[in-house]
Amino acid sequence: MISRIGALLLRYLYLYRRSTARLMGVLFWPVMDLLVWGFLTSYLERIAAPPGVTFLLGAVIFWDIFYSAQQAITLSITEDIWARNILNVFVAPVRTWELLVATSLIGVLRATVSAGVLAILARLFYGFPLFAIGLPLLPFYFSLLLFGWAMGMFTMALVLRFGQAAEALIWGIPFLIQPLSAVFYPVAVLPPWLRTLALLLPSTHVFEGMRAALATGSVSGTTLAAAVGLNAVYLAAGTAFFGWMLGRVREKGYLARLGME
Amino acid sequence: MPETRAAIEAAIAVTGLTKRFGDVAAVDGLSFSVASGEIFGLLGPNGAGKTTTIQLLLGLTTPTAGDVRVLGLSMPSDRLAILQRVNFSSAYISLPSNLTVRQNLRVFAGLYGVRRPQAKIDALLELFEVSDSAGRPTGALSSGQLTRVNLCKAFLNDPEVLFLDEPTASLDPDIADKVRTALQKLQRERGVTIVYTSHNMREVEVLCDRVLFLAHGRAVADGSPSEVLARARSDSLEDVFIAIAREKTPAEPER
Ligand SMILES: Nc1ncnc2c1ncn2[C@@H]1O[C@H](COP(=O)(O)OP(=O)(O)O)[C@@H](O)[C@H]1O
Ligand SMILES: [Mg+2]
Q: How does pLDDT run across A145-181, given as a tens digit for each residue?
């Protein structure tokens, strides 16, 4: 069991180590995002200086935790499809949960490295003191990680089931979720019907909670509880969905066809 | 020698196996068994159901009906226990191209829980004559080298049953011959049961102890190559193959 999870981890890590293109992919987009929002923040501070505008940088970094976790999980499997290696993995005695644990661990790793680099750059370039805020942010970090796992499992399942046709969703789903999650603005800005939808996402509660924490210095227990509760639901649903889709894929005989379209 | 065959426990026993994809019956009420240590050729024209049969045996696809037993265990309920003891390769799958050959084999050695993986990997690379490629990125290999590296992966767990779906499809005659020789050697020395598909009938005649011809998912001929030839009053499997492939209706077996 440990040996198999370790072997999968090794496979996914080799993937990054052997490829500068993939390493770039890990950091390039997040860093570009940080630069845009960093300069925007500097500009806003110069013209109007609304209070708490530096929060935008925190939002960029925290959004990246979700995004990186979701990407790392989904791409792990997608890369094996592209490499026509997926059958080798599925004829090996790997349990589904071992696959999910290994991809999730890659998710943690990539999210931590990526958000860590962003936090350092934000400090260097814009003097944004994410680490100084420190411990109160930890529950939010885990919360976004869990949500990244859950959505990663959804996208991974869709890619297995629909192949190339679903690959756009790997990047599309985060973009769908971002505007609803009130990452850069309070959820109150959204029209009422969208607000209801937004509050069904754990990420919304995380970003609402974070803004409050940065403004007041204390973390609201109810916000956190909402995020944790919703995460549990999404994770359970994501895992179940993945298992169900894998069953469908076995029925339809798609495993052998993946990567050969 | 049917008595001895019955005495040894069959490595594979399939009864009434059926797989429907919508209206297409890719495998249609197939029953056969493969004796332990046999090289078994699964033959037939494109679309006959060979690949689907192998996938059903590996639990990659779930059957519509029928019963599959591998090494006395039941697929799919004992899928993981079976997968630990069998392996698979095909010309149509690959290994991640940006990892070196050794890295790829190390990953799969881990997945199969191989005990001294380094020694095992070295021995297999040697056997398939690809030791020189060990440190190269897998994507830089020729198709002949890649096929042999795939076979190294397939032998990592000392499989008792090996499924090979057109393993020699993209090889030149020289390399194909080397691969056949290595497979025969492994089969003799370790008694591994091999289920083999190929469109190269000369290869099949040389390699297979027994063959099963499929058409439209059904068995249309089976036996040792010489038995099949005798029954079809033919002197080449190639002619038998062509006759089967040109048969239009789904298979009234000839008698
Ligand atoms: N996943 C699938 N979905 C639908 N039809 C399939 C699928 N896989 C195979 N088939 C069909 O089943 C039949 C048998 O295919 P296959 O087992 O690949 O044949 P072979 O390997 O003998 O060439 C073909 O008609 C093929 O089109
Ligand atoms: Mg085939």
A: 999 999 999 999 999 999 888 888 988 999 999 999 9
Contact A72, A106 (CB under 8 A): yes
Two tokens, residue A239: 């895992």
Residue A153, min C-alpha distance to chain B (Å): 20
Q: Which residues of A touch B (CB under 8 A)?
A: 3-4, 6-8, 10-11, 14-15, 18-19, 79-80, 83-85, 87-95, 247, 250-253, 255-256, 260
SS3 label, residue A103: helix
Residue-wise pLDDT for A4-61, tens only, equals 999 999 998 888 876 777 777 778 888 888 888 888 888 887 887 666 677 888 889 9
In this prediction, the answer to ipTM > 0.95 reads no
The Cα–Cα gap between A78 and A213 comes to 37
| DSSP symbols for A215-248 | HHSS--HHHHHHHHHHHHHHHHHHHHHHHHHHHH
Q: What pLDDT is stored for residue A57 in this prediction?
A: 87
Among B52, B62, B108, whose Cβ lies nearest the Cβ of A92? Answer: B108
Closest of B77, B91, B60 to residue B196, by C-alpha: B91
Q: What is the pLDDT of residues A115-141, one digit of tens each?
A: 999 999 988 988 888 777 777 788 888
Mean per-residue pLDDT, B82-110 = 95
Computed from CA positions of residues B71, B74, B75, B78, in that sequence, does the dihedral angle turn out positive or negative? negative
Instruction: Read off the pTM.
Output: 0.90
User: CA A62 to CA B131: how far, in whole Å?
Assistant: 47
User: Do A69 and A100 touch, CB atoms closer than 8 A?
Assistant: no
Surface-to-core class of residue A19, CB atoms within 10 Å of its CB (0-12 exposed, 13-18 middle, 19+ buried): middle
- Read off the tokens for A121: 């750059």
Per CATH, the architecture of B37-50+83-245 is what?
A: 3-Layer(aba) Sandwich (3.40)
How many other C-beta atoms lie within 10 A of the C-beta of residue B53?
28
Q: What are the residue boundaries of the structural domains of chain B, listed by start? A: 37-50+83-245
In this structure, the number of other CB atoms found within 10 A of the CB of residue B250 comes to 12
Percent of chain B with pLDDT over 70: 94
